[in-house]
Amino acid sequence: MNTEQRSQEMQWASGRILFSVQDGVGVIRFNHPEKRNAMSLEMWEGFAHALQHARDLEELKVLVLTGEGSEAFVSGGDISQFEASAQTAETRAEAQRKARAYGPLLADFPRPTIACIRGYCLGGGLAVAIGAHIRIAAASSQFGIPAARLGIAYPFGGVRALTQLVGPSWARMLLCSAIRISANEAERIGLITRQVPDEALWDETMALARAIARNAPLSVNAALVTVAQVMKDPADRDMDAIGDIASRCVNSHDLVEWRRAFMKKRQPQFRGN
């Protein structure tokens, strides 16, 4: 990231959560490398604020999540806060509120999200990665859920998302054993979308993000809406939402623009309407 882009960064949690956007691609960075990007309660809360801010930016077309430094995407929650946050029912409830505030915001994020994973992706960090639409990981990355070794229960939303990705057998394996698996194994079982050589991770991620950003926003949104409905039980699907977004695509300026661009052999300039 160049110096100009760094200077335009917004920050939360005393600079532990950073956000920037350029050419329609937003980037949220977990900036706690001295602790392998372990997430404090303030960072979880800051992450939620960053997602809210990114969601409301009209120019944003795709969002990338990544960890600062070379050792970790997110290595989990900050264990040093566990004892203080568990002292009373009130402190436990407040800690859970802060730690889980990002969940619905990430799950319902209206533009494509990409987790760019290098190094450790563990516990709550894996929940963040699973919450993204796409996961690109460096070959040396490691994945795991240490909840069973810590005496805590992984939250329902994380277990459900994990099970949808890898199936119940591998979900039980990862949760009950607390083992770590390689990027190769993670790709094989469907936990990540794709693994790439370590040195190519950022370039590959940004190439994908820019490719998405060049596409017709309404069509991209239609894909997200439709896949989200496919993942629901048939009785819970909103088929009207699928029909509405399909109709908007058919009647859009962008479809006319694509036809004109095709005939004139130029790149289309999509507007999202």
Provide the number of structural domains.
2
Instruction: Please give the alpha-carbon distance between the first and last residues.
Output: 31 Å
What would you call the shape?
globular
Structural class: alpha/beta
CATH topology of the largest domain: 2-enoyl-CoA Hydratase, Chain A, domain 1
Strand percentage lies at: 15-25%
Main sheet: strands, sense, barrel: 7 strands, mixed
Mean pLDDT: 92
Element order: H for helix, E for strand: HEEEHEEHHHEEHEEHHEHEHHHH
CATH architecture classification name of the largest domain: Alpha-Beta Complex
* Helix content percent band: 40-55%
Q: Count of helical segments? A: 13
Largest sheet, spatial ordering of strands? 1-2-3-4-6-8-11
- The count of strands amounts to 11
Whole-angstrom Rg: 19 Å
Top-tier CATH class of the largest domain:
Alpha Beta
Poorly predicted ranges:
1-7
CATH homologous superfamily placement of the largest domain? 2-enoyl-CoA Hydratase, Chain A, domain 1
Describe this protein with a few key phrases.
globular, 2 domains, single chain, 13 helices, seven-stranded mixed sheet, 11 strands, 49% helix, 2-enoyl-CoA Hydratase, Chain A, domain 1, four-stranded mixed sheet
Structure overview:
This protein has 273 residues and is α/β, with parallel strands linked by helices. It folds into 2 domains: 3-214, 2-enoyl-CoA Hydratase, Chain A, domain 1; 217-264. It has 13 helices and 11 strands. The protein has a 7-stranded mixed β-sheet, with helices on both faces. It has a 4-stranded mixed β-sheet with strand order 5-7-9-10. Strand 2 and strand 3 form a beta hairpin. Helix 2 packs parallel to helix 4 and helix 11 (217-230) packs antiparallel against helix 12 (239-250). The longest helix is centred in the middle third of the chain and has 22 residues, at 156-177. The two termini are 31 Å apart. Mean pLDDT is 92; it is low at 1-7.
